[in-house]
Each structure stands twice: as structure tokens, then as C-alpha cells.
Design a protein that fits this description.
Elements: E1 4-8, H1 10-17, E2 27-31, H2 42-49, H3 54-63, E3 69-72, H4 76-87, E4 97-104, E5 107-112, H5 122-139, E6 146-150, H6 161-171, E7 179-184, H7 186-191, E8 196-198, H8 201-226, H9 230-238, H10 240-250, E9 258-261, E10 266-269, H11 276-291, H12 294-320
Parallel strand pairs: 1-2, 3-10, 5-8, 6-7, 6-8
Antiparallel strand pairs: 4-5, 4-9, 9-10
Helix pairs in contact: 2-4, 3-4, 5-6, 5-12
Length: about 325
């Protein structure tokens, strides 16, 4: 039975698939003449790659119900532009949000946005929170995930006006499917203080790249330290199991795959340089998203939030309206 499809040039993929035993029997290869390059601008890729490129065909398969998810390791900007144009965003969502799984001392958390939307107003941040909570319920199987807004301090008086306004609305409990815990700081991300950390794409992308760089820095320090002296090498020999566990924890391949949320379909972006293990991690994430019906959860939560908000605003107007004879 076919469980997956590969979109691209048949001549390039057939030799690779022929070396495998099981996969060729359980997939199909869809030939596409055009491939979007990493250097293509999103507008250029959308203009010249629509209807012909492997990236567009893979996304279109999700739109037509021929696939549950699309996984791509290609050009991020082009993927987002094509996904938005083909699948469209849900009501109230202006553009897709990129969410990432983040390793923490308590396990894993979700951070969004990590680069798709630079700058966000209060209503967009609330949408981010709703999307992230729905993803956490699907991927982590948590009934009410905890959510925090990334800020320069935990005090309510601190931060940008957009963040403070979003926090005020979230504290009112109008957003469904989450346990809002208030503001969190940068060090709370690694601590796993909350299941979902909400921020706009500029600060989220910097946080992501900083964490990746710090992990590489620590690995380099350990590697240099353990090989510096004979006693250090002997110590490493006896502690190699602990170091292997640490290396496993810091391995970015285990958490490969960012998810574009807010679309009428599931699109997962894999790192362009991911190896087989990294691609497998992205595929597992995509599978969890599909099985968890994350798109349905997001759509239902957004509808419920906007209904509650409308009722709340109506009640507020009614309570301030002058009574008879005023």
C-alpha cells in the first residue's frame, strides 16, 4: 500500500530508491521538471514554480486531500509563500507562523514564532498562543498545556505595549485549551517553565539561533577539555555513557522540523542540511500533527475564542449603556 509520495525528478530519485528494499513498494514518485533552488526569492519561486515545481505539487497534494502532510527541506521563504498561496490561512490568521520543538530540562516545549512573522500586535500574539496550545495538545498529548508570553521580565508593567495587551486578554481566560501562566523570560525557555512560549518572529529567531550556537559552543568546550590531558581522557573513558547521553540530548537532529501553523493543512519545514535521522524526526513530527488532527483543533479553538471575545465585548457595551430614563 502506498503511504507516501516523493515529488521531484524521477531520474534523480529512482537510483536512490532502488537501493532500498521496503520503501519503493510503499511509495510513488511524482515527476516534476522544476525544482525551487535555495537562492530563489519567494516571489520568484511563486511566479515561476507554481503548478510545475516539486514544492508546489507536494503542497497541492495536501490541498487536494491526496496527502495528510507536506515535508520539505527546501527554500523556507518559497515554501511559506507557496503554502500560504495554495492552502490559504485560516480566518483571522494573516500569515503562517513557524513553530519549533525546543529541548528543555523538563523535556520539550514549543516556541513560536521563530522567524515567519517579524513583529506582531496583541491579537496576533493571542493567535500564536492558540495555535501553539493546539499543537502542544496534539504532539505532547496534554489536555491543557501551559502557555507563557516571552517578555523582558515577569512583571505585568514591563515589556512592549503589544505584549502587555496580549497578556491582559489572555489573563481574562477567553482563549480555550490552555493554562496561561503570564510572562516568561529568556532563561525560562530552556527551563521548560511552560509548554508553549509565545513571541514574535524577530526575537524568536534570535533565541533559536542563539540556543543552537550555545549548544555547539558547549559541545566544542567539552570536546577540547576531554582531549587536553591524559587524566581528562581517562576521565572521559569512565564517564563516556554520561557524555553520550548529553550528546543525545543536544543533538539537533532529534528535534528537526519546524511547523507552519495557521494554514488549512500541515506543512513541515526540515533543515536543509538534515541527514536521514533528521528527516525521520521531521516525518515523525508531521505524523503526530496529522494523527492529532491539529488543523481541526486550531480551527475550533480560533472559532471559540472569537465567539467568546464577541460575547465579552457585547456584555461590556451593554453594562455601560445608559438605562431607561437616563
Amino acid at each position: 500500500m502506498c503511504i507516501s509520495s516523493f515529488f521531484g525528478r524521477v531520474a534523480d530519485m529512482t537510483p536512490v530508491l532502488s537501493t532500498l528494499q521496503v520503501l519503493p513498494k510503499r511509495c510513488t514518485v511524482i515527476h516534476c521538471d522544476v525544482a525551487v533552488s535555495m537562492s530563489d526569492k519567494p516571489s520568484q519561486a511563486l511566479r515561476h514554480g507554481r503548478w510545475k515545481s516539486s514544492m508546489w505539487k507536494a503542497i497541492e497534494a495536501v490541498k487536494n486531500g491526496e496527502a495528510e502532510v507536506c515535508i520539505s527541506a527546501g527554500n523556507t521563504g518559497a515554501l511559506m509563500a507557496m503554502a500560504k498561496f495554495c492552502l490559504r490561512t485560516m480566518a483571522s490568521i494573516e500569515r503562517p507562523i513557524l513553530a519549533a520543538i525546543w529541548p528543555t530540562t523538563r523535556g520539550e516545549s514549543i516556541v513560536l514564532d521563530v522567524g515567519a512573522t517579524i513583529g506582531a500586535d496583541a491579537h496576533q500574539l493571542i493567535d500564536f498562543a492558540i495555535l501553539g496550545a493546539a499543537m502542544a495538545r496534539a504532539v505532547f498529548d496534554i489536555e491543557r498545556p501551559t502557555v507563557g508570553l516571552l517578555n523582558v521580565g515577569v512583571e505585568e508593567i514591563k515589556g512592549q505595549e503589544e505584549v502587555k495587551a496580549a497578556g491582559s486578554i489572555l489573563r481574562d481566560g477567553l482563549a480555550p485549551g490552555m493554562d496561561y501562566r503570564g510572562f516568561v523570560e529568556g532563561d525560562d525557555i530552556g527551563k521548560g517553565t511552560v509548554d508553549v512560549v509565545v513571541t514574535e518572529g524577530f526575537s524568536g529567531n534570535i533565541a533559536l539561533k542563539s540556543a543552537e550556537g550555545t549548544a555547539k559552543q558547549i559541545a566544542g568546550y567539552l570536546r577540547d577539555t576531554m582531549s587536553r590531558t591524559l587524566s581528562a581522557r581517562i576521565g572521559y573513558f569512565f564517564a563516556r555513557a554520561a557524555f553520550a547521553a548529553l550528546r543525545e540530548k543536544l543533538d539537533p537532529r532529534k528535534l528537526n522540523g519546524g511547523v507552519f501553523l495557521g494554514l488549512n493543512g500541515i506543512v513541515v519545514k526540515s533543515h536543509g542540511g538534515a541527514d536521514a535521522e533528521g528527516i525521520a524526526a521531521a516525518t515523525e513530527l508531521a505524523y503526530d500533527m496529522a494523527v492529532g488532527r491539529v488543523v481541526d483543533k486550531i480551527r475550533a479553538d480560533l472559532d471559540q475564542f472569537h465567539l467568546r471575545q464577541t460575547r465579552n465585548e457585547t456584555t461590556a457595551v451593554s453594562s455601560t449603556a445608559p438605562g431607561p430614563g437616563a
